[in-house]
Amino acid sequence: MKQLCNAIAAVAALALLGASVGASSSGRPVVVLDPGHDLHANTETEPIGPGSSTQKIKDGGGTHGVVSGLREADLNLAVALRLRVLLEHAGIKVVMTRTRTAGTSIGNIARARIANRARALLFLRIHADGSTDPSVRGTHTLYPTYRRGWTDDVYAESKRAAGIVQRALRSSLGFPDRGLQERSDYTGFNWANVPVILVEMGFMTNPTEDRLLATGAYQRRAAVGLCRGTLQFLGRPVGACG
Ligand SMILES: [Zn+2]
Fold first, then answer.
1. How far apart are CA 122 and CA 63, in angstroms?
2. Which of 151, 189, 228, 235 is most enclosed, with most CB atoms within 10 A?
3. Tell me: the pLDDT tens digits for 71-93?
């Protein structure tokens, strides 16, 4: 009887362990993909972190292609949908914060809660940047600033993921390297209880990068780079990414 009890305890411990490291009920590791923005901006406000009195707009809306006219929300989703296929092929369970560009953007707390609920091993937020200066270009990756009570539990792993994913995405796209940036003011970072990064693939206000990112070939390059970075961060072989 004692042996049986030990066996049951061991199974229970394994189940707990599985739940705590981001494995889904099917046993596959979980990644949450968050294609930024949606068809409409959301001007409601929400606190930038748990218990904060500082309110920030939910979503001011994204940028758009200066040459292509492409909406950032559509580009972000196109890359995320390609990436989902690649990651699932590599045995990852993918949860999306949205699969269409059709409505009013959900807030950043809502996006973070999807990742928290999924116990994601990585909450990967996909964006493209804009600037008033059309010559500004390149790829960069953002991760949360260390703040006790908000991001202390995810800071180190987020920073590690940012470095790995930035390197893989940059080498796949071939755009200039704008490096990494810590942000304390991103609501979606401060509410996340799982490692979180936000990639800015390139600048849609730069004619060169806009033209390229509007093509299926470069959207595929972005997805392959993000797939390699994600799998490398998870300690898995990247060969499945193509
Ligand atoms: Zn954006």
1. 25
2. 189
3. 999 999 999 999 999 999 999 99
Torsions phi, psi of 125, nearest 5?
-100, 125
Kind plus residue range of the DSSP H or E element containing 84: helix 72-89
Structure tokens at 208: 């060169």
Six-digit token string for 173:
């796209």
> Residue length, the chain?
242
CB 130 within 8 A of CB 63: yes
Ligand 1 centre from 44 Cα, in Å? 17
For residue 68, report the distance from its CA to the centre of ligand 1, in Å. Answer: 16
Of 21, 83, 36, give the one whose Cα is nearest residue 234. Answer: 21
Residues 121-149 have pLDDT tens digits of: 999 999 999 999 999 999 999 999 999 99
Of residues 194, 190, 198, 197, the one with CA closest to residue 48: 190
Cα–Cα distance list, 117 to 22, 23, 193, 208, 240 (Å) = 10, 12, 9, 39, 27
Q: Where are the beta strands (DSSP E) in the chain?
A: 30-35, 42-47, 55-59, 93-96, 122-129, 139-144, 177-183, 196-203
pTM: 0.90
Q: Which residues surround ligand 1, an ion (CB under 5 A)?
A: 36, 62, 127
> How far does the centroid of ligand 1 lie from the alpha carbon of residue 128, in Å?
5
**CB neighbours of residue 86 within 10 Å:** 21
Work out whether strand 122-129 and strand 42-47 pair parallel, antiparallel, or are unpaired.
unpaired
